[in-house]
Amino acid sequence: MVHTSVIGCGNMGSALVTGLSKAGGHTIVACDLDPDALAAVADYADETTDDISRAGEADVVFVAVKPDIVEAVLGELDLSADQTLVTIAAGVPTAFVEARTDARVVRIMPNLAAETRDMAAAATGDLTDEVRVLLDDVGEFAEIEESQMDIATAVNGSGPAFVFYFIKAMTEAGVAGGLDHEEAQTLAAQTFKGAAETVLQDDRSADELIDAVCSPNGTTIEGMEVLWDSGADQAMTDAVAAAERRSKELSADFDDE
């Protein structure tokens, strides 16, 4: 059992609280100054509080606040070398956090799928066994270098929004063809979910899997020809590059301090 706390119960923080609660086996303190945010996670946390010092008593402390208030939150935390601080704020370098706490520091970029325990996360820093257990309980994670955090932020941090965009487009295509919205959305979302699981569990590459679905002169190859001609892959590359660029800009703001 890991005694953990989550400071900042916005979208990402609440997703972590919910996912860890569903995993079971941990004590969770949720901390936020907004009573509505605390009320939203009250059923999943062992304790809710607006007292940061109370949250600072946990073995593992997640700081899931906006980048511009990270420094203020760190200033209110008095952590020891026996504790671990896990920072989630996009663009905030590990060194910036390490200079402001005595705790071990781990920087992660998770995503909202932590709520359903399907999170993809990138992690760097002093990963303890406790942190590994927590991350494993809400999904999958990859250990990367600090220098790779900007691209990881773009791929798995921003990535869910890009996937939602394509699910919406596929749903709307289904509706245009005569399905009702709920039917179309279920089919589109489950198709993305199933395809993702196939990629994770199958040894074949994405290109090989595409070939496996495409029968000669069949329906899929007709659709793929449209996608190949559309430049959709370049649009995705450009979207990831834009998100990475913004992450680097945020990091530069902290490098100047």
From TrEMBL:
InterPro entries tied to this protein: 6-PGluconate_DH-like_C_sf, NAD(P)-bd_dom_sf, P5C_Rdtase_cat_N, P5CR_dimer, Pyrroline-COOH_reductase
Pathway stated in the Swiss-Prot or TrEMBL entry: Amino-acid biosynthesis; L-proline biosynthesis; L-proline from L-glutamate 5-semialdehyde: step 1/1
One GO term (biological process): L-proline biosynthetic process
Catalytic reaction list: L-proline + NADP(+) = (S)-1-pyrroline-5-carboxylate + NADPH + 2 H(+); L-proline + NAD(+) = (S)-1-pyrroline-5-carboxylate + NADH + 2 H(+)
Locations listed in the record: Cytoplasm
Pfam family, one: F420_oxidored
Domain Pyrroline-5-carboxylate reductase dimerisation: 146-250
EC number in record: 1.5.1.2
GO CC annotation terms, alphabetical: cytoplasm
Ligand binding (NADP(+)): I7, G8, C9, G10, N11, M12, A64, V65, K66, P67
Keyword Amino-acid biosynthesis belongs to the record: yes
SUPFAM superfamilies, sorted: 6-phosphogluconate dehydrogenase C-terminal domain-like, NAD(P)-binding Rossmann-fold domains
A single MF term (Gene Ontology): pyrroline-5-carboxylate reductase activity
Main EC class the enzyme belongs to: oxidoreductase
Limits of the Pyrroline-5-carboxylate reductase catalytic N-terminal domain: 6-91
Record's keyword terms, sorted: Amino-acid biosynthesis, Cytoplasm, NADP, Oxidoreductase, Proline biosynthesis
The keyword Oxidoreductase appears for this protein: yes
Family stated for the protein in its record: Belongs to the pyrroline-5-carboxylate reductase family.
NCBIfam families: proC
Free-text function comment from the UniProt entry: Catalyzes the reduction of 1-pyrroline-5-carboxylate (PCA) to L-proline.
Protein name: Pyrroline-5-carboxylate reductase
